[in-house]
From TrEMBL:
The keyword Cell membrane does not apply. This is Selenoprotein W-related protein. It holds the Pfam family Rdx. InterPro entries: Selenoprotein_Rdx-typ (IPR011893), Thioredoxin-like_sf (IPR036249).
Amino acid sequence: MAQELLTTFGDALGEVAIVPAGSGIFEIHLDGKLLHSRKRDGGFPETKPIKQMIRDRIDPARGLGHSDR
């Protein structure tokens, strides 16, 4: 997923970081806001909705190609 985000958003993202944490924790944050939590949202996210959430926050006019369909 990190590679997909970097490919899609390139320089628009300051960084994509993987931070080791406790067992079972998987969270996606953007500018301090929690976009997805495995515990809260029940599982691992699909790439499409994550890319759409990020796009809507950093560049709403950006097209995502096949991810918008």
